[in-house]
Automatic annotation (TrEMBL):
The protein, known as: Uncharacterized protein
GO molecular function: glutathione dehydrogenase (ascorbate) activity; glutathione transferase activity
GO cellular component terms, A-Z: cytoplasm
Domain GST N-terminal per the UniProt entry, residue ranges: 30-111
Length: 256
């Protein structure tokens, strides 16, 4: 079965964003809830996982604007006051990769980790490397971007060459792919718009990966960011270029 055929996502009407005065949903009433921001890349990871496994009816969304979260979220739901978090079976859990694994292990739907031990170990290595990868790209944004970002992206190109197929584990779409998708989405926009740098040039594996990722309904349903906002956010965060009213722009794009 193809990856697209395995994708259980279906179109859905997204839950309106909760504001600072929105009433808290009942806690631990038997409903499984995913607390997110539609523009947060970490939350997007878990949202893609939910969608791919066909859990859109089973896991309800509680979306926030990160600038104006209601007080009850930190006070009564998740003291870390971060997204994503998951309410399930009488407890609250956080951290995006942990939640991706939890959904894959505890809910029905297509498996997002392989049975093969060697492939599973490789997937775990890729998951563990995500923070390092993001850190390397962010460091490049602060330096000579065109020269410094190449080695960071080359890591993905090399990783994608390990198995034949468009994804990190070959034909199988996995949590390893999901972990990188939201960040590649944003990095590709920023590097192209600001530096005219094409991250897929000379990287056929990465180009094929992005092409196949963009065919997935589970991912396409999570695309909520405006490319202009991505450019402004990263430009302001890394002091690359300044925009009119840049202070307000930075406040507006707390997490993209």
């Amino acid at each position: 079965m193809s990856t697209a055929a395995s994708d259980k996502a279906t179109p859905e009407k997204l839950t309106p964003v909760y504001g600072p005065t929105s009433e808290q949903p009942p806690l631990f009433d038997g409903t499984t809830r995913l607390y997110i921001s539609y523009r947060c890349p970490f939350a997007q990871r878990v949202l893609i996982t939910r969608n791919f496994k066909g859990l859109q009816d089973e896991i309800k969304l509680v979306p926030f604007n990160l600038r104006s979260r209601p007080d009850w979220y930190a006070e009564k739901v998740y003291s870390e006051n971060k997204v994503p978090s998951l309410e399930h079976n009488g407890k609250i859990m956080g951290e995006s990769i942990d939640l991706m694994k939890y959904l894959d292990s505890n809910f029905e739907g297509p498996s997002l980790l392989p049975d093969d031990a060697t492939k599973k170990q490789f997937a775990e290595e890729l998951l563990e490397y995500t923070d390092t990868f993001n850190g390397n790209v962010y460091a490049a944004f602060k330096g000579d971007v065109v020269s410094d970002v190449g080695p960071a992206v080359d890591y993905l190109e090399d990783a994608l060459s390990k198995y034949s197929g468009p994804f990190f584990l070959g034909d199988q779409f996995s949590l390893a792919d999901i972990a990188y998708i939201p960040f590649i989405e944003r990095f590709e926009i920023f590097l192209s718009e600001v530096y005219q740098y094409n991250i897929t040039e000379g990287r056929p594996n990465l180009a094929a990966w992005i092409q196949d990722i963009n065919k997935l309904e589970s991912y396409n349903l999570t695309k909520q960011i405006d490319p202009k906002e991505v450019v402004e956010y990263y430009s302001l965060r890394f002091l690359v270029i300044f925009f009119n009213q840049n202070t307000q722009a930075y406040v507006s794009y707390t997490s993209i």
